[in-house]
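Dear Dr. H.,

I hope your travels went smoothly. While you were away I took the liberty of generating a structure for the chain from your last submission, since the lab meeting agenda had it listed for discussion. I wanted you to have the full record in hand beforehand rather than looking at slides cold. The sequence, exactly as received, is reproduced here:
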Amino acid sequence: MQKKLHIRKGDTVMVIAGDSRSQQGKVLRVDTEKYKAIVEGVNLVSKHTKPNAKSPQGGIVKKEAPVHLSNLKIVDNSGKPTRIGRRLDPKTEKLVRYSKKSGEVIK
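The corresponding predicted structure, in token form, is as follows:
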């Protein structure tokens, strides 16, 4: 069974702890089993690659490493990090995520 997480693919998030603290980026992928997410341009690591058919030169490639979900906060429309809540939308009768800081619904 899959758990409901406060972060989804495509969300804009801010890192609140670790070496990449206060950096923002878009979530590229979420691993629900390990509770980690890969964020665009955040937590970059150097990966050494051998020459192969794809990259005949080889060398050092910068790549995003996963960040634990507890170290991420969603950034709402105002550009500030916020906590997330869930409530029923009166029009559609479905659960929607909303910003606890501003009260706006997060798409």
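Two observations you may find useful: The first strand starts at residue 12 and ends at 15. The chain has a mean pLDDT of 93.

With kind regards,
E. W.
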